[in-house]
């Protein structure tokens, strides 16, 4: 910028332009420093988030492993309880097989049958009643059909293999013979 002094001579006003140049240099220098510090902050925040993510992934992996081990331990414990419930029945089988005469053997087998059913009941297993009942494909598996005048159509005539439920849920359907008209 040019100016005229008191004597009328023109001269460059460097004082005005120099501070302006200095300000822009300062702004660009502080802007670069500000940008660098902002970039450093963002990098630090990113690194902290990556570290947190890695820790959370490791925690989740440990949780999953711990949960799988606890589930396996629970299954093993449940299996132990089931086996303990069946051991008296095995003992009764051993005693029945040592019986010298047929009548004692039959009593032993009847006792074992009763013990088995009691053990299953304690585990929540219930037999499905089939003989004489209307055929239900959700509970019965028809193996054959026969004509019968004694049993109404689509009713179970004979139970070939008993079905069971565990706590209301079907474990095994009953294999049955069904009457047809």
Describe what you observe in this structure:
With 181 residues, the chain is α+β, with helices and mostly antiparallel strands. It has 2 domains: 10-123, no CATH class; 125-181, Roll (Nucleotide Exchange Factor Grpe, Chain A, domain 2), CATH 2.30.22. 58% of the residues lie in helices and 22% in strands. It contains 2 helices and 8 strands, in the order ββααββββββ. It has helices at 14-97, 102-122, and strands spanning 2-4, 10-12, 125-128, 140-147, 156-161, 163-166, 169-172, 174-180. The strands form 3 sheets. A 3-stranded antiparallel sheet has the order 3-6-7. Strand 1 (2-4) and strand 2 (10-12) form a beta hairpin. The protein is elongated, with a radius of gyration of 45 Å.
Summarize model confidence as the mean pLDDT: 80
Order of helices and strands: EEHHEEEEEE
The percent range for helix content is 55-70%
Number of helices: 2
What's the shape?
Answer: elongated
Entry summary:
The protein starts with a strand and ends with a strand. The chain has a 3-stranded antiparallel β-sheet with strand order 3-6-7. It has a 3-stranded mixed β-sheet with strand order 4-8-5, with no helix packed on it.
């Amino acid at each position: 910028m040019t100016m005229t002094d008191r004597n009328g001579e023109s001269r460059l006003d460097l004082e005005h332009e120099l501070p302006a140049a200095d300000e822009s240099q300062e702004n660009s220098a502080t802007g670069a420093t500000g940008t660098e510090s902002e970039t450093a902050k963002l990098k630090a925040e990113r690194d902290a988030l990556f570290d947190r993510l890695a820790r959370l992934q490791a925690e989740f992996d440990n949780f999953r492993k711990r949960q799988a081990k606890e589930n396996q331990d629970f299954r093993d414990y449940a299996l132990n309880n089931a086996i303990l419930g069946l051991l008296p029945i095995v003992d009764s089988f051993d005693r029945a097989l040592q019986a010298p005469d047929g009548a004692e053997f039959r009593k032993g087998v009847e006792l074992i049958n009763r013990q088995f059913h009691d053990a299953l009941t304690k585990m929540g297993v219930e037999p499905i009643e089939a003989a004489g009942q209307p055929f239900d494909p959700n509970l019965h598996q028809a193996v054959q059909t026969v004509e019968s005048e004694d049993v109404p159509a689509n009713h179970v005539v004979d139970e070939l293999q008993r079905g069971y439920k565990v706590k209301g849920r079907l474990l095994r359907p009953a294999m049955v013979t069904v009457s047809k008209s």
